[in-house]
Amino acid sequence: MTKDVFILNSSDGSESIELPVESGAIGPDVIDISKLYEEKNVFTYDPGFVSTASCHSKITYIDGDEGILLYRGYPVEQLAKSSHFIEVAYLLLYGELPNKNLLNDFSSSITHHTMLNEGMLRFFNGFRYDAHPMAMLSAIVGSMSAYYHDTMDINSVHAREIFAHRIIAKLPTIAAAAYKHTVGQPFVYPRNDLGYCENLLHMFFSVPAENQEIDPVAVEALDLLFILHADHEQNCSTSTVRMAGSSGTNPYSAIAAGISALWGPAHGGANEAVLRMLEDIGSKKNIQKYIAKAKNKDDPFRLMGFGHRVYKNYDPRAKIIREMCHKVLNQKGRNNSPLLELAIELEEVALNDPYFIEKNLYPNVDFYSGIIYQALGIPTSMFTVMFAIGRTVGWVAHWREMIADPSGKISRPRQLYTGQPERDYMSLDNRA
Ligand code: ACO
Hey, which residues does 9 pair with through a beta bridge? Predict the structure, then answer.
């Protein structure tokens, strides 16, 4: 809704433009600058998009100063306490909580899309035994466009629907196949009598010779982590999915682009980096040394799992995960986990350090998630893959919202060119 105008004046007062201001349901207003170049021949400059809204969205709202995260208006704390991942997936995709029938239908559709085309399973044999699971995940998801041709028409509502169910259902199967490849075990097929997280644990830890008993606390922990990772508005990987998708590419390619963006240590790769950092720190006596490294501008080391582009307050997801982390470790009889103790001490030291206080650096969602995954027996290299399973729901919801938006345009940022002005080509003989 346009409510006001913002008047922009040049410094000498010779130029001025009225820009419409739009208000959302909650949160800061936005100044619509889309006519700025056409009318005044200037661009805006906002590296990292810190002040730029790239789209209208009804999916997720974050207030980083207050530590608020809402999925379709519902506080994530309430969903974490009372809902479950499949219901949250429905909510993010369709905008409302489902009734019993809708939930049963959705859940059954996800269950019945978990198998992979056998040809795709053979791809895994081509990867080196030590290939990173994120490399396998992005390659396999990208290759889905070579198998599932019936869902390539992005203009078909039906095809988009099947794609959404298919990719959410198959991500755990692909993740499990990547895991089995790294540990040299045969692939274990999904079972339709199991729920989403139970099935994932079954495919990871059963072997053809023996079914692994499924631990209900592990199921509860995974379900919670997937809820908390399901969406986070226009983060780096989601914006990547939107940007790739804006060209009209097929949805599997757009999601594969998002997976690649998630892998980086400044984003989803941080959960893996946190665990490696804790292992490097090794013991409480080294904490001060690493805190000093994190504060030293000449040292590239950063305290992994600390800081967030949007939250300048405690990440609400980190609070919930911290509790679950204790529950999992208590249940596993590892109350005295040295890694958890180290993490708690590190958190305490950082939260009381003036550098972290002044810069509003708090633990983020990844600070504790890795410790939970490790306690569940999931190897460190799989942590970002686990994040991707939950986040796929958000990527799909945003991709669908973007495709259905009639005002959608290809994403095409501009730049401030700082290279050479125009010059003439010089033949090789005349160059110094
Ligand atoms: N350790 C030490 N210093 C830090 C850290 C950190 N983890 N994070 C930020 N800072 C400092 C920066 O050096 C900068 O200092 P300066 O103002 O003196 O230059 C200041 O805090 C602001 O940091 P920016 O990098 O400008 O903030 P930005 O919003 O661009 O970065 C990011 C956010 C990338 C998450 C950053 O905090 C970081 O690298 N954290 C560690 C990696 C991490 O945990 N990532 C996971 C994010 S959550 C997710 O994606 C699921």
Answer: 16
Handedness of CA 351, 349, 382, 143 (dihedral sign): positive
Q: Output the CA 316–ligand 1 centroid distance in Å.
A: 17
Higher pLDDT, 121 or 314: 121
Note the pLDDT tens digit of each residue in 40-80: 999 999 999 999 999 999 999 999 889 899 999 999 999 99
User: In the predicted model, what is the mean pLDDT of the chain?
Assistant: 93
User: What distance in angstroms lies between residue 265's CA and the mean position of ligand 1's atoms?
Assistant: 11
Atom of ligand 1 nearest to the CA of 294: 2
How far apart CA 163 and CA 148 sit, in angstroms, is: 9
> Percent of the chain having pLDDT more than 90?
78
> Quick one: pLDDT at residue 358?
93
315 C-alpha vs ligand 1 centroid, how far in Å?
13
Give the residue, out of 281, 347, 361, with the most ligand 1 atoms within 8 A of its beta carbon, to mutate for a pocket test. Answer: 361
| b/e burial code for range 163-202 (CB count within 10 A of at least 16 → b) | bbbbbbbbbbbbbbbbbbbbeeeeebbbeeebbbbbbbbb
Question: What's the pLDDT at 2?
Answer: 56
- In DSSP terms, which residues pair with 70 in a beta bridge? 61, 75
Torsion sign across C-alpha atoms 64, 70, 72, 76: positive
- Between the CA of 361 and the centroid of ligand 1 the distance, in Å, is 8
What is the residue with the minimal CA distance to atom 9 of ligand 1?
307
**Portion of the chain with pLDDT greater than 70, in percent:** 98
Say if CB 201 and CB 208 are below 8 A apart: no
Q: What is the pTM of this model?
A: 0.91
Give the nearest ligand 1 atom to 359 CA: 21
Average pLDDT over residues 171-193: 96
Ligand 1 site, residue 305, Cβ cutoff 6 A: yes
Tell me the residue type at 115: M
Q: Where in the sequence numbering do the catalytic residues fall?
A: 308, 366
CB distance 267 to ligand 1 below 6 Å? yes
Please report the atom of ligand 1 found closest to the CA of residue 307.
Answer: 37
Q: Could you give the CA distance from residue 432 to residue 423 in angstroms, rounded to a whole number? A: 16
